[in-house]
User: Fold this.
Amino acid sequence: MTNLNINFKKMLKETKFNAARIIIVGFLWVIIVGTLMLMLPVSSAKGQWTDFVTALFTATTSTCVTGLVVVPTYAYWSLFGKVVILILIQLGGLGIISIATGVLIIIGKKINLKERRLIQESYNLDTSQGVVLHIIRIFSGTFAVEGIGAILYSFRFIPKYGVAKGVWYSVFHAISAFCNAGIDLLGDNSFMAYKGDVLINITTMFLIVVGGIGFIVWWDILKNIKNIRNKKYPLKKFSERLSLHSKIVLTVTAIAIFGGAILTFAFEYNNPETLGTLKTGEKILASFFQSVTLRTAGFCTIDQAGLRNASVLLAFFLMLMGGSPMGTAGGIKTTTVALLFLDVKSVVTGKNATEAFKRRINRDNIKNALAVMTMAISILMIAVIALTFTETGSLTKICYEAFSAIGTVGLSMNFTASLSLAGKLIIIVLMFFGRIGPITIVIALARKRRIDQHIKDLPEKKVLIG
Assistant:
């Protein structure tokens, strides 16, 4: 434990409190350690050494909470290997800064001012006051929600697998779902056997959504509920009292879930390879599950390879968007999509400012959102082009794999296992960027900028657009 404390402080000193760099180095460190552990014979079910690329791919997909796998998790890895994977999922879901700070708190080390500033910068908080409580809430909230999920899963898994295995399966899938990892132990068909099971579907969707909306939204909602219970203001004022961030996240999340479910239901209603053979109630349930899981979760109850082209295009959008900031999900985030849409709306309607819920959006926020979107699409397109040279699959399957990787979704059209060595490496880079890229960009660009006098003194000109 002392070594962890020394290493964490050494990292702070060497990086000059560059939170973006610490996050990158931290994730790389976890992936490397995870890779080495998964390579060991004790990690495989057959007790044999695992090749470096397979171990690296598995460690990356676990730490970056993606879910794409080149070997079946349930069959290839031993119990030790599965525990390593679960730990990597939890570390990746909570984040490197949270884990490191949590360790210091557990061993009783005082969090100094420099470390508080790092936490503040990492979570884009307005002040360094209360950052320790911020981390404690993240841990307590995470374990509470995962515990609820495990209990609900146990009603299905214990009767089917017995007490010991049932509890293990319940805990594993609760953590995997909450962290939006999408890695399961159920077999080659994920949750397809439970497509009509209301308890499994609702529990999984609950965990995915709660993990994906972000911790900041949690606390905002809970704070307002507490104020209403204390009669500080009436229930009808609940939505008004939410922060602008929470309003945008909850609005976009609701639109994405219901919009995605309605369109999936319409596109796949009579498709015999997906929803066509199901009863109406099962079709509705499967449509909602598909809509939720596409936004970085990775579990599935219908065969992704059987989707129609319209559903595939819908999947591309939902996978790229992902979840919300400060949560366990990946993607470019719901707020990024919302700000870009609102900015376009302001241009179309002839307004000088971008607004939402009677509030004006800061221009730096818009520029950051544009930067995140541009970088994500640029890297995605480069990767797709590269994959068309390295892989022999159809363009649809290649694009689905690439979007799934950069959105840290984990869904595949049965294509991951057939990737070439070069293809696996490309997907590994995409998964890493999908988990790190948007976070790093937001942290780097959200800092107070130095006004460059040279640029400020340059004459301003307009460029023709459109």
Residues 131-161 form the longest helix (31 residues). The mean pLDDT is 86. DSSP finds 20 helices and two strands in the chain.
